[in-house]
Amino acid sequence: MRILLQLTYNGANFQGFQIQNEGRTVQYELERILKRMHRDFVRIHPSSRTDKGVHALCQYVHFDTHLNLTPSKWQHAFNSSLPDDIYITDVREIPETFHSRYDCIGKAYRYKIYQTPYRDVMKTGLETWYPYDLDLDKMNEAARTFLGTHDFTSFCSAKTEIENKERTIYSFTVTKTPDGYDFRVIGSGFLYNMVRIMVQHLIDIGQGRREDDTEALLAARDRKEAGKTAPAEGLYLEKIYLTTEALEKDIPAGTKIITKNTPKSLTTDPGML
């Protein structure tokens, strides 16, 4: 049978989701428990592979098993053995035709910055400190340029190995919060460091360090033309979309959804608990 886990984690002390040669990873912690339960290696398949220091409010992984456990027993088995910075929020049995990665049709990320005269050590690893004045209108105007389908070569790491760097952005907004700003972006998918580079680009525009040259940078398709990469600590994988109905609720009405294949394995989105 195939099992779908919904989980959340604090990425501050992880080297990322995917197993690395050294350091803690979320994947290792999950597969460690499965290996002990099955007495054999069991591979998990995530919807997204977050980078070092990036958090997840909602992440999905699936795995195949011969063990006949109820969802509640699976949840207890994981949560009783996982470290304090990972928690399984939901478990369900799913059709074997469903794949967490390939049936994911969209993702939402949130980047959080706070503004205080001095760095707040209680927020270290959780939000990015940026004490400078920012122009909200200019940042939102530039963010709108990202909407639609573009080649994001200029806004992804030079180490990105994927050849097709075309992605679709459905929504990108910057909002003022009581202690800073939130950047929220929803797209069909994201390249390595893409969200953090776009956020830093908007911050530079908001601070007046550069003019709004977003359209020109997209056309240039050259990573060297764009600015730096924002720190990882402020980035949260906020939501994974597994059905078009769930995605439509969070993006502007009438927005065309781009999918490689029509999701057919889940009739309802697990949602966020």
UniProtKB/TrEMBL annotation:
<dbReference type="InterPro" id="IPR020094">
    <property type="entry name" value="TruA/RsuA/RluB/E/F_N"/>
</dbReference>
<feature type="domain" description="Pseudouridine synthase I TruA alpha/beta">
    <location>
        <begin position="9"/>
        <end position="103"/>
    </location>
</feature>
<dbReference type="GO" id="GO:0160147">
    <property type="term" value="F:tRNA pseudouridine(38-40) synthase activity"/>
</dbReference>
<comment type="similarity">
    <text>Belongs to the tRNA pseudouridine synthase TruA family.</text>
</comment>
<dbReference type="InterPro" id="IPR001406">
    <property type="entry name" value="PsdUridine_synth_TruA"/>
</dbReference>
<feature type="active site" description="Nucleophile">
    <location>
        <position position="51"/>
    </location>
</feature>
<dbReference type="InterPro" id="IPR020095">
    <property type="entry name" value="PsdUridine_synth_TruA_C"/>
</dbReference>
<keyword id="KW-0819">tRNA processing</keyword>
<dbReference type="InterPro" id="IPR020097">
    <property type="entry name" value="PsdUridine_synth_TruA_a/b_dom"/>
</dbReference>
<dbReference type="GO" id="GO:0003723">
    <property type="term" value="F:RNA binding"/>
</dbReference>
<protein>
    <recommendedName>
        <fullName>tRNA pseudouridine synthase A</fullName>
        <ecNumber>5.4.99.12</ecNumber>
    </recommendedName>
</protein>
<dbReference type="InterPro" id="IPR020103">
    <property type="entry name" value="PsdUridine_synth_cat_dom_sf"/>
</dbReference>
<feature type="binding site">
    <location>
        <position position="109"/>
    </location>
    <ligand>
        <name>substrate</name>
    </ligand>
</feature>
<keyword id="KW-0413">Isomerase</keyword>
<dbReference type="Pfam" id="PF01416">
    <property type="entry name" value="PseudoU_synth_1"/>
</dbReference>
<dbReference type="GO" id="GO:0031119">
    <property type="term" value="P:tRNA pseudouridine synthesis"/>
</dbReference>
<feature type="domain" description="Pseudouridine synthase I TruA alpha/beta">
    <location>
        <begin position="142"/>
        <end position="239"/>
    </location>
</feature>
<comment type="subunit">
    <text>Homodimer.</text>
</comment>
<comment type="function">
    <text>Formation of pseudouridine at positions 38, 39 and 40 in the anticodon stem and loop of transfer RNAs.</text>
</comment>
